[in-house]
Amino acid sequence: MTGTQTLIVVLVIVIAVFLLLLRALSLRAPGKAKLSFGEIFTAEIELGTADIDKAKATVKKAIEQRGAGDVRNAETQIDRARTTRIARVLWVDDNPDYNLLETIALEELGLFVTKATSTEAGEFYLRRLNFALVITDLSRGADRDAGLELLKKVENVQKDIPVIVYTLHAEDKRAWLTDAGVRAVVDTPSDLIEAVQAHRPK
Prior knowledge:
Blueprint: H1 3-26, E1 44-46, H2 49-66, H3 71-79, E2 83-85, E3 87-92, H4 100-108, E4 111-116, H5 119-128, E5 133-136, H6 146-157, E6 163-166, H7 170-180, E7 184-186, H8 189-199
Parallel strand pairs: 3-4, 3-5, 5-6, 6-7
Antiparallel strand pairs: 1-2
Helix pairs in contact: 2-3, 2-4, 3-8, 5-6
């Protein structure tokens, strides 16, 4: 499901709920009804075959572009996402264009991806919006520990948000990063999809 399609689905749900509430209120004594936009992120959606196929094709392109990853594993993970919850993801990377295909694949799987290029911008978003999980690179510019700094910011704002590090040579870094509190350390699009599917809201 593309970001536009997801937004349309969300808007239709909001309008339908609003109309039902309006009708219910018109039949009863005067009162108030409230619907939080944040409650939309508890909605469960069913992805269509076309959305699943698009996500698979996008991840396959990302794997080909990176020259690493298991297409079959990614396809299996995507198939498991047919019924899922809408969720918002924060992705912090100083070069977001490097992750375009992965971002599109996540959007097609019902995730709203918010991009930030610095730890400071990431913290700004974290303090103002609710996120289901955070993806980050490890190094940004000369700062080799930017991902760990972001992890600390996440823990200060909301400890239970899973953090996934998407970086080169993940195997060499996995042990000490998971000891620091990172939920997953990955370096291929297929592993990223698997980690996101494992840690996104069920």
